[in-house]
Backbone:
């Protein structure tokens, strides 16, 4: 029952978000175009509900010659690829704003497991154990506010599974407001190396922000 209400909440708040943030969209679009050449939006194939694929939208934060389908963690010296405007967008998480459209059209939810890259096979496999691939991925989620980039794959999948078990209006409200706190504090954001990079590198995967 709540999943139906959750979808209605997603539609209402994403529509409001598209309207309210439209002036910010315009400012960021101009700033990105001035800062570096290339498209304003960055599209990337991600895993959606029931392991279907969709294109996630983000404001472009990296140069157009950046290796594709490679999480930031696995890039050698990722800082060399991030644009000046990109650093600001990533630090403030404003690069995620275009995903409001993904939410509006039903490819994502406001709260849920962060959508894995299509080739993050270990993460997808771990999430299968907890049913975390069977719900809409989210703009933010339980794992996001409990470690984000610092989490090893197994722990992240377990947290995603915990969200599935506890999914409710209260859980979503909690995740939403704790995300705001996390963004302000920049908790768990790591560019390049992480404590678990050896584990990630060996599996050719990482936790995506």
Residues:
């Amino acid at each position: 029952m709540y999943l139906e209400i959750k979808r209605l909440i997603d539609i209402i708040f994403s529509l409001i978000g598209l309207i309210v943030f439209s002036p910010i969209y315009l400012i960021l679009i101009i700033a990105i175009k001035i800062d570096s050449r290339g498209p304003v939006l960055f599209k990337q194939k991600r895993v959606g509900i029931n392991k279907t694929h969709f294109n996630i939208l983000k404001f472009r934060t990296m140069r157009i010659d950046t290796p594709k389908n490679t999480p930031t963690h696995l890039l050698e010296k990722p800082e060399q690829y991030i644009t000046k405007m990109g650093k600001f967008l990533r630090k403030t998480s404003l690069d995620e704003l275009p995903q409001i459209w993904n939410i509006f059209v039903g490819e994502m939810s406001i709260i849920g497991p962060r959508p894995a890259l299509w080739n993050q096979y270990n993460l997808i496999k771990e999430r299968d154990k907890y049913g975390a691939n069977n719900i809409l991925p989210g703009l933010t989620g339980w794992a996001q506010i409990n470690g984000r980039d610092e989490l090893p794959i197994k722990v992240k999948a377990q947290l995603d599974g915990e969200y599935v078990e506890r999914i409710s209006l209260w859980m979503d409200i909690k995740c939403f407001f704790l995300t705001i706190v996390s963004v302000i504090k920049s908790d768990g954001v790591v560019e390049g190396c992480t404590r678990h990079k050896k584990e990630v590198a060996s599996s050719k995967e990482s936790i995506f922000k």
